[in-house]
Amino acid sequence: MKTNKTDKGFTLVELLIVIVILGILATVTVFAVQGITDQGKTSTCAADKKTYEVAVEAYWAKNGFYPVNEAALVPGFLRAVSTNYSVGTSNGVITLDANPPAGCTA
């Protein structure tokens, strides 16, 4: 009597190896994307800061005085108020918010 054994499916060891490989790939991808996200936030903050500086100077050139807050810059000089920085004046000196969110520098 001869028995025919046909393999159908994967062994437990084969499945575990595939799961480990997928875990390693997922870990590498997460760390790679995190670096890109941090770089994007830094670039956004730098662009927002420069945009605010230009808008404040344009406001001063048009009106002869600096804006009291960022709301005075919308809609004539800015499309919308930034979530990264705010504008204020102290003793006639224009300032950007000294406590911007993480990733932004004042």
Provide an overview of this structure.
- The protein has 106 residues and is mainly alpha-helical.
- The protein has one helix and two strands, in the order αββ.
- A two-stranded antiparallel sheet has the order 1-2.
- A hairpin with a 2-residue loop joins strand 1 (87-90) and strand 2.
- The mean pLDDT is 75.
In oligomeric terms, what are we looking at?
Answer: single chain
| Helix proportion | 40-55%
Overall mean confidence score, pLDDT: 75
Using the alpha-carbon principal axes, give the shape: rod-shaped
Strand content: 5-15%
Supply the number of helical segments: 1
Tell me the total number of β-strands. 2
Radius of gyration: 28 Å
The end-to-end span amounts to 85 Å
Ranges with pLDDT <50 over ≥5 residues?
none
Profile the largest sheet. Answer: 2 strands, antiparallel
- Which structural class best describes the helix and strand composition? mainly alpha
Arrangement of strands in the largest sheet: 1-2
* Topology order in helix (H) and strand (E) letters: HEE
